[in-house]
Design goal:
This protein is of the alpha+beta class. The chain has three helices and eleven strands.
Length: 185
């Protein structure tokens, strides 16, 4: 009788623990998202997981960058995946991003950086497969600052690893100059 009672208590505690994990999955995922962004070199990371299932996630109000001026900001990011593929291959089926804003700085030598985002010495040029099968960018604004001049624009794009992609980029500037390069009108 004692063994049966002990097993019933263990099963009840396990059920309570699993229910708590299920109910707290979005706050825990939001915390993990911000921690991952900070470890990846993003300053002042913000973002909230507003939906999370075994095959989809939605992140809202994602931003990073120096206080008072984000380097990146996205209203919404959605992704569909197979959870086994995420665990084994670290990749997802598709990612949909936008609307949003990306700030870009170009120095005198033409090096590109993003405010509040430290890409490290490698600059992200490590080889390997992309972590998604398809990517869709919708209404992402671009703000470019150079030593002399500024530019602003937007990009919308669709990319599929199997078939390639298409993008629409519009950038407007009166004058943008860095190094020996000048772009005007």
């Amino acid at each position: 009788m004692r063994v049966a009672r002990f097993l019933a208590i263990v099963v009840l505690l396990l059920a309570i623990l699993l229910a708590a994990l299920y109910l707290l999955r979005k706050p825990v995922a939001s915390w993990a998202l911000r921690q991952g962004m900070a470890q990846a070199g993003l300053e002042n990371p913000q973002g909230e997981v507003t939906a999370l299932t075994l095959d989809a996630i939605r992140i809202e109000n994602l931003s990073a960058g120096p206080a008072g001026g984000e380097g990146i900001r996205f209203a919404q990011i959605n992704s569909d995946y197979h959870w086994r593929q995420v665990l084994s291959e670290r990749s997802v089926k598709n990612v949909r991003v936008g609307p949003g804003l990306v700030r870009v700085n170009i120095d005198q030598q033409g090096r590109i950086s993003f405010p509040g985002i430290n890409l490290g010495e490698g600059g992200g040029d490590s080889a390997g497969a992309l972590p998604f099968e398809t990517l869709t960018l919708s209404d992402v604004e671009i703000s470019i600052d150079a030593p002399e001049g500024q530019a602003a624009g937007s990009i919308s794009a669709e990319y599929d690893q199997r078939t390639g992609g298409v993008a629409e980029l519009e950038i407007l500037s009166n004058m943008l100059r860095f190094g020996d390069m000048t772009i005007s009108d």
